[in-house]
Amino acid sequence: MNILALTLNQLVRKLETDYGKGRFHARALYREIFDKGNLNLGSAPEFRASPALAQSLEKEMSVNPGQVVDSFQEADLTKFITRLFDGRKIESVIVPMNRYNTLCVSTQVGCRMGCTFCETGRMGLKRHLGTHEITGQLYNARHTLKKPVKNVVFMGMGEPFDNFESVMDAVKVMHVQQGFDIALRHMTISTAGLVPGIEKLAAQNLPGIRVAVSINAPDNETRSRLMPVNYAWPLDTLKIALSQFPLPHKGTFLFEYILIKGVNDTPVHAEQLAKFIHPLPVRLNLISCNPVPGLGFESPSDEAMNRFSRQLVEKGVFVIRRWSKGRSVSAGCGQLGRS
Ligand code: SF4
């Protein structure tokens, strides 16, 4: 029984079928393992009266989040590498934000979306991650690296909507209050623009979960060149899907726009971008391109960043400027996959 892969309801069913127990013990397991990182179940009050049950659960249960084999530090940001059961490696990033950390998790080994500015895209898709390999990154951040995590962003290696079922189950596991206790409004799923994924997410009962979209160009020609996914779901289709997404009251989408020198950084691009965004409720992360060796893209100058940002703000767009954290440890956007 791989508990990192089991949603609370699945665990309850398993305990009912195999042990004649139910929600009470399932919640205790979530608390001991996910919240406390305690694998010695006999010490939990719910199991004290039945040590035999604790023993057989310990025997049957596996908690295998993968082994953290390396980690890199830049200031207070940490990138860590997990080796999975088949020897493949994935990367995760812990970004400090105020009092708590945000954990950026991977959802696939590699990615098949082929974005031309992205190191992970260059790998191609090796395989999807199982639910336990996604939740395992949170388990390792909390209990192996001892970092308090309150936010999870699905923005690491891979396209989350290309591995939809496992990502949805991971969201459900992470959300349970007795366990990892990550609020839905503290989870963000980032997509390159897979419209069927946005539509399927809209149909789930996950109120408040946040959606981020890598936009990166405001016209189909440039965007298709940077992100081939745009051929299948061009900007107008994407905009319709977003406008139909059930945002909570005062909810916003997060758009990411990687500014690349000479590619998507002109005043015309800024003008078109503001038009595309209107009237969607959007917070725009403007990110300076992280140059990846061999991909031929350059960072814009500070002046170009300022000009682009100013033009959007004048058009009423809410802009957050980011000079990518983690550049020296290859932990910035589009850089995962090089370790
Ligand atoms: S930017 Fe995201 S969707 Fe595009 S290739 Fe990289 S990991 Fe995949």
Quick synopsis:
The chain has 339 residues and is an alpha/beta fold. It has 13 helices and 12 strands. The strands form 2 sheets. A 10-stranded mixed sheet has the order 1-2-3-4-7-8-9-10-11-12, with helices on one face.
Largest sheet: 10 strands, mixed
Outline type: elongated
Tally of discrete structural domains: 2
Mean pLDDT value: 93
Give the termini distance in whole angstroms: 31 Å
Name its key features:
339 residues, alpha/beta, TIM Barrel, 2 domains, ten-stranded mixed β-sheet, two-stranded antiparallel sheet, 12 strands, elongated, binds iron/sulfur cluster
Task: Please give a structural write-up.
This protein has 2 domains: 3-60, no CATH class; 67-329, Aldolase class I (TIM Barrel), CATH 3.20.20.70. The protein has helices at 8-19, 23-35, 45-48, 51-60, 119-123, 131-144, 164-175, 195-203, 220-226, 229-232, 235-243, 267-277, 302-314, and strands at residues 67-74, 77-83, 89-97, 100-104, 108-110, 125-128, 149-154, 187-191, 210-214, 253-259, 282-288, 318-322. It is built from 13 helices and 12 strands. Helix content is 36%, strand content 21%. Mean pLDDT is 93; it is low at 329-333. A 10-stranded mixed sheet has the order 1-2-3-4-7-8-9-10-11-12, with helices on one face. The chain is an alpha/beta fold. α6 (131-144) runs parallel beside α7 and α12 (267-277) runs parallel beside α13. Bound molecules: iron/sulfur cluster. Iron/sulfur cluster binds at residues 111, 113-115, 118, 120-121, 157-159, 192, 214, 334.
